[in-house]
Amino acid sequence: MSKKLIDLQHITKSYDGHTILDDLNLYIRENEFLTLLGPSGCGKTTTLRLIGGFESPDNGKIIFDGKNITNLAPNERQLNTVFQRYALFPHMTIAENIAFGLKIKKKSKDYINDKIKYALKLVNLDGFEKRSIDSLSGGQQQRIAIARAIVNEPKVLLLDEPLGALDLKLRQDMQYELIRLKNELGITFIYVTHDQEEALTMSDTIVVMNQGYIQQIGTPEDIYNEPCNAFVADFIGESNIIDGIMLEDKLVKILNVTFPCVDEGFGTNTPVDVVIRPEDVELVAPEQGLLSGEVTSLIFKGVHWEIVVLAGGYEWLVHTTQMHPVGSKVGIRVDPFNIQIMNKPESSDEKAVELDA
Amino acid sequence: MRNLKRQLFAGPYMIWIVGFILLPVVMILYYAFTTSSGSFTVSNVLTITHPIFFRALLFSLKLALVCTLICLVLAYPLAMILNNMKNGSQGFIVFIFILPMWMNFMLRILAWKMLLSNNGIINTILGFFGLPDLHIINTPAAVVLCMVYDFLPFMVLPIYNALARINRDVIEAAKDLGAGNITIFFKIIVPLSMSGVISGIIMVFVPALTSFAVSDLLGGGKVLLIGNIIEQAFTQDYNWNLGAGLSFVLMIFVLVSMTLVNSRDTEGGANVW
Fold first, then answer.
1. Which residue of A has its CA nearest to B171?
2. How far apart are CA B233 and CA B248, in angstroms?
3. Are B142 and B219 contacting, i.e. CB atoms less than 8 angstroms apart?
């Protein structure tokens, strides 16, 4: 693994007595694409602004490349930001926008011109030098904002919901482009978003945050398949989150039916949260299932059908490629491997972060 | 039918434009280019080349420029301070600034006359502290002082509005790209507030150039501006043709200076570097 580039230690931040971040600890490795993911107000943007230098923490330290940069101004940090609303300079041409940082560093004219050409090529906007900002679409403006940041060859690029204002198709294109840029440039990306799909698509590491606390840190696969609590499970994709009782190792009782699972070490007769992803629920003939019920809703979603089955007193959300008409009787089965067991939140702190996304 | 109704609504406004804007301009043009007996002449307009009139015009331009400059120097930092204040107190300070504008223009000038006169309040206070008297009444300094006082809000408000429109993101982006406060001020804040500065300059320079009431009351007849000469031509000499001729010249100067200032605006953005 590559070395730690940024290390946030015991960061606390509050506004007007309202705590945004409480004792946050997080490190970011070199060349990592790290995403801070969470609902609005979870502290993700504040974390980014602390790293960028636009806010200073009430407590704690920010270490960058071995040096304490907690009190450095933004213009003295070796990182650049791509802002949510682009923040291009409206009185300058595109070339002047991109050149801004380089001119401050007093680079030569030739160097700057080369860099502008290179950056525009990188974001697929060759020949746009003389255009004005208002002549660009949202997506193009965002690319210029990225170009303006990367010509400075920062060690870290901070991106604050940069795709938030774009439409779906453009957003998906830009996601691929960002991945390509990251691979070509070999710099560290710290990305803030509330869009779980964006996070899953692009990240090496996802940090799920809620109400100022880090809920889980892991690879996209970890976060999706092994959510550590109900909040993460609910926030990352859709899921069935059901109260259950862990009878013993590898046996869990849900809705008064005993399901085999693969989890161990929860003790005996422990109340737990059980997460089952909608695509992991198998619909079979009523007599073949562990539970049986009736289809109450059917929606065509393109790739799959979204079905709601009322079984055992719980409305199961099911994604399947097979159509089951409303009113039909079905059985429910779940592969033991696809049942995810989580401890119930213990403290009131954890309870507060439960399920309000 | 609907169109006709709409046009009907525009009626009062059209009457206003024709009756109170177009007609007077046409009349000024008519009087400016005719003699008292009604035959065509350019002599009214050319009177401006007469040394007394020409000097008055130059002096008016000079005072208007000085007044505009002082207003700009005072207003810009003030507008920046206002813009950096918390939202609640901002409104209050803007209100304080507009407050004098609710008083009659003439009253304000008369108040300055009282304040500045040789036995006036300012000198009484200065005398109380044993300080030397201030003798600026009946001098151009008094005229400029009063004009600055009167016109300052017209400079502050447009600049403040322009500054308030600058997105905080843009300033943060400049900081992020390595710009210090001085660079941010000259490369970002000044160019982006130029439109406000331009409107401010026009709103101060034009009334300052054409004013006559201030110089009348605070200049004591010693400060002769082009506005005073035009006023005298109309009200004392009853020479409408001369008055209109000089007004025409003044209008040309106003138009030319506005065009010059406005053309700076369109260039302003492109030549930042």
1. A87
2. 13
3. yes
Indicate whether this complex's ipTM tops 0.90.
no
Q: Are A295 and A339 in contact (CB under 8 A)?
A: no
Q: Which of B170, B178, B187 sits opposite A87 (nearest CB)?
A: B170
Averaged pLDDT, B119-138: 83
Residues of chain A contacting B, Cβ within 8 Å: 52-54, 73-75, 80-81, 83-93, 96, 99-101, 103-105, 148-149, 152
Rounded Cα distance between A352 and A23, Å, is 16
| A285 to A253, A291, A324, A335: CA distances (angstroms) | 21, 10, 11, 16
Counting residues of chain A whose pLDDT is more than 90, the rounded percentage is 61
DSSP string, A291-333: EEEEEEEEEE-SSSEEEEEEETTEEEEEEESS---TT-EEEEE
User: Nearest-CA residue of chain B relative to A103?
Assistant: B273
When pLDDT is cut at 50, 70 and 90, the band that residue B132 belongs to is confident
Say yes or no for a CB contact (<8 Å) between A85 and B183.
no
Backbone angles phi, psi at A48, to 5 degrees: -65, -40
Tokens coding A309: 């089955």
What are the residues whose beta carbons fall under 8 Å from the beta carbon of B76, sequence distance 6 or more? B159, B197
Query: Domain residue spans in chain A?
Result: 4-225, 238-348
Summarised one tens digit per residue, pLDDT across range A115-159 is: 999 999 888 899 999 999 999 988 899 999 999 999 998 999 999
Is B116 in a helix, a strand, or coil? Answer: helix
Interface A–B counts its CB contacts (< 8 A) at: 68
Class for the domain spanning A238-348? mainly beta
Q: List the single best residue of A51, A89, A134, A148 to mutate versus B (max B Cβ within 10 A).
A: A89
Work out the minimum CA distance from A281 to partner chain B, whole angstroms.
46
Domain B49-237+247-268 has CATH 3.90.550.10: no
Does residue A46 register a pLDDT over 60?
yes
Find the CB nearest B183 among A81, A87, A104.
A104
Residues from chain B contacting residue A149 (CB–CB below 8 Å) = 176-177
Domain layout of chain B by residue ranges:
49-237+247-268
Distance, in Å, from the CA atom of A306 to the CA atom of A240, rounded to the nearest integer, reads 13
A4-225 and A238-348 share one CATH topology?
no
Return the minimum-mean-pLDDT range out of A190-194, A323-327, B120-124. B120-124
Q: A129 burial class (0-12, 13-18, 19+ CB within 10 angstroms)?
A: middle
User: What's the pLDDT tens digit per position in B27-63?
Assistant: 999 998 988 888 888 888 888 888 888 888 899 999 9
**Is B173 near chain A, with CB under 8 Å?**
yes
Arch. (CATH architecture) of A4-225 = 3-Layer(aba) Sandwich (3.40)
